[in-house]
Amino acid sequence: MADWKVERTGELELQLSGALKFSDITEIRKTVDHLLGEMSGTVSVDFSGVDRVDSSALSLWLCALRRAEVLGLTLKSVNVPSDMQSIAELVGLEQCFS
Fold first, then answer.
1. Helix (H) or strand (E) holding 10
2. pTM for this predicted structure
3. Residues in Cβ contact with 82 at an 8 Å cutoff, skipping those fewer than 6 apart
4. Chain centroid offset of residue 95 CA
5. How far apart are CA 7 and CA 37, in angstroms?
């Protein structure tokens, strides 16, 4: 059973929950990519249900931003975990959540 979940919770909102970790990030990314492909406009990505992250969570966000750009979407991050923000700051990418 997966230790994570990605679901569309509204017309323009995705909710991520559980653990965003390296061992699952490829499957999580596929799910996010698929759901983004069904959306348009500005999409809110809510991380409030995320309880664990590693550096691959930042990679997931950067890939989602790139996918959104290709699709003509704008992504807005909401409730980004402090650990994920710290990883971004450590590598000089804190602006990716603006």
1. strand 4-10
2. 0.94
3. none
4. 15
5. 13
pLDDT tens-digit series, residues 33-58: 999 999 999 999 999 999 999 999 99
Tokens of 32: 């996010």
Please write down the long-range contacts of 56-61, taking CB distance under 8 Å and 24 or more positions apart: 56/20, 56/21, 56/22, 56/25, 57/20, 57/21, 57/25, 57/81, 57/84, 57/87, 58/84, 58/87, 58/88, 58/91, 58/93, 58/96, 59/25, 60/20, 60/25, 60/28, 60/29, 60/32, 61/96, 61/97
Q: In the prediction, which pLDDT does 1 show?
A: 63
In the block, which residue shows the tokens 């931003």?
65
Pair 29, 10: CB distance under 8 Å: no
What's the average pLDDT block by block, 10 residues per block, for the chain (98 residues)? Answer: 91 97 97 97 98 97 97 97 97 92
